Amino acid sequence: MAASTGPLLAIGAITMVNDVIFHSRPVDWRVPIAVGGACVVFAFLERPLGPAAAALAWTALVTSLIVPVRDDTQSPVVAAVTYFGFGKG
């Protein structure tokens, strides 16, 4: 398995949990298809780029945690904090 596969699969899982569990939306099957395609592309990119492709995948993971994917939803971190009730005095 390529070094970038884990972070990319985590991005897909976080996106699915954010949509389905935190925002009660139906499953968007484009997300797992896109993540699978991204895993294949990054696996091929690791040949010429080496660790830079894995570093890009980790950067994408951190970015996907703090930036909302859609305009009408919260970012996964904010949605998790709201869902679990943390931050309420």
**DSSP strand (E) fraction?**
under 5%
Q: Largest sheet at a glance?
A: none
Number of helices: 4
Return the string of H and E elements.
Answer: HHHH
Average residue pLDDT: 92
State the end-to-end CA separation: 44 Å
Could you tell me the number of beta strands? 0
What is the total domain count? 1
Structural class designation = mainly alpha
Helix share bin: over 70%
> Oligomerization state of this entry?
single chain
Low-confidence runs: none
| Rg of Cα set | 14 Å
Give the CA-based shape.
Answer: elongated
Q: What structural keywords apply?
A:
89 residues, mainly alpha
Q: What topology does this entry show?
A:
Layout: H1 5-22, H2 30-49, H3 51-66, H4 76-84
Helix pairs in contact: 1-2, 1-3, 1-4, 2-3
Description:
By secondary structure, the chain is an all-alpha fold. It has one domain. The chain is 71% helix and 0% strand. The protein has helices at residues 5-22, 30-49, 51-66, 76-84. Helix 2 (30-49) packs antiparallel against helix 3. It is elongated.
Can you describe this structure in just a few lines?
With 89 residues, the chain is mostly helical.
